[in-house]
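Subject — a protein and its fold

Tokens — whole-number codes for backbone shape
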Amino acid sequence: MHDYRRLLDLHGVTWGEKLIPYVGEVHTSAYLMNGYDYWNACFRRLGGTRRDMDARMGELDLDVVVRDALGGDVLDNLAALRLTPEGHRLEARTLAVLDDAPLSTTLLLDSSMPEEVTVTVDGVAHVVPPGGAKLVAITSAGTVIAGEPIDLGALTRRARAARVRLRAGFPCRWAVTSGDGQGWYPRGAVRALDAQLRPYFHGDDLEVDVPAERLTVSVTRGMEYGSATVDVEPAPGEELTVELTPERLYDAAAHGWYGGDLHVHLNWMGDEPATPERAAAAQIGEDLHVLNLVAGNVAGNRVYDRELLEEWVGRDLPWSDESHVARFGVEYRNDLLGHFSAFGLTGMPTRFHSGFGDSPDTHPNSAPLAELRGLGAVTGYGHPFHTNLSDTDPPDRAVAAGRNCSAREIVVDAALGLIDSLDVLNHSSIQATAVVYRRLIGAGNRLAVTAGTDAVLSISRRGTASSPPGWERVYAWVDGPLTAVSFAEAVRRGRTFATTGPWLELDVGGHRPGDTMRPAEGDTVTITARTVGPEVEWLQLRTADGVIAEGGPGLLTAELTVHEPTYVVAVAGGGPHPRSMHPGGAYAHTSPVYIGDHVARRADVEWCLRWLDLLEPLLDADGTFASAAQRAAHRDLHDQARQVYRARLRAVSGS
């Protein structure tokens, strides 16, 4: 942790990582929350295609990117000093400061001057180039010198201090806000914002210093609970106790279902290095049954939290109990073939990434997958796709050119039985991932639906990355006590559904997800799906041939007459909702109940074969190989997968 603090102090929120697109986005997101604004600003500065922009990221002045992305707006955490030929003006959202507490914020020096300008802030001189911008930390509300003194008094308003004591009876997620939306936190807490810009922190029986004015206090505890809210107004100097408990919407563990987040980073750049204690508070405060903290690199060889993985591999982290299991795992990363996580490791792997810096794409993902599974891990591709994809689209868009961490090798690894799951619930395109998932299982592959948020505890302000772990979850039905082993086995067997919040049940003739049933041809089976959660607006039942029934939330039933092997899944969703932190709204998807042993639909197998054909020109254009043998290893693996799919196609054709 001390080393990460040093990296932050030396390099800022990027921790010295090479400037590639998502490193730049972490920098700008320390101030902005909208990645779309960030990308637009990058395009305006660099122009060209997305691939051109990726190659030229090092040319960017990220302080200017922040200025451009704002487009003249002023944020709560970022005041602006406009330096213009007509004069200088200060623009800010005023922040409340308690009694004599110091101000701590950032000032954007934004120049439209034709010459460089020297600005002195807190006694330190900063040179702003012509038309440039610079972000400067400030710790006082005194004056700035830019040719003439500028009063910073508009940045703050002084407020009389009070205190609230927060009690729910068990650890929860809290938010305390004043009327202007400013968040208030316990002393020493990270000032985190979730994807909906709501401040939050975790714990119980907590003290928070607040202004003596009207405040809103809210409490919740992960997706199995609703939220409770109350307005209070403590008097100056008063300590006011607020007792507030969220209502439980459903109790998954009571029915043998345990929710996990299989992709969470403790440290991965950011504005505040995170400790295991913070992870513990978040897991218990969210009542997240299973937490997989993954060690992983960013843009080079450094693997964040590798030391903690080495210390704790194969063992539960100290705060684990009979209903909460926390482990350290791995995110293996290759930005051409895809990233995947591993949960339940029994020993240390030897590979963590390829294709970064001077390292070539030395091997297909199959090699680290085999090693991780040999170490007892359950594996799954994470944040798989970042584009729109409909049920009728060819796979071309999902395998588009460029290095962007899409899960391009999953069609290969699924055919060869090398991967266990796919994070259909992720922070990127759920819709595209669900389409790919159903194509894969329709082509004869057996994969579990899982969820990984990619939450980063060392980042406090970056959309879903700074949302609490478990804002999406994979629920797995565990036959017996919850352990890392039993949860991993339930995922392997496909006894899962994944969700942004809704509870989703599926029953097919008495069978649950992960089961295989073998009715006779012509038999009719009854299918039932049920949801719980105020965010659900629609519910579907789907087979390999598409939607067979749909309706509103609650209960949906259909009859299916069996003529050939197929699968059944349930899917539920809705629009934006306070309980769903995904920008696409509410969503839940089950793993299949398989009807017949060998599900293989011609259209889906051909779709996967088309995918394999697209991989070859992609690797030729964007792969980095140190030898012909390395390139050949990928081609050979693709040929093995092609043979599997062609054999399935022959079986479907009866020849």
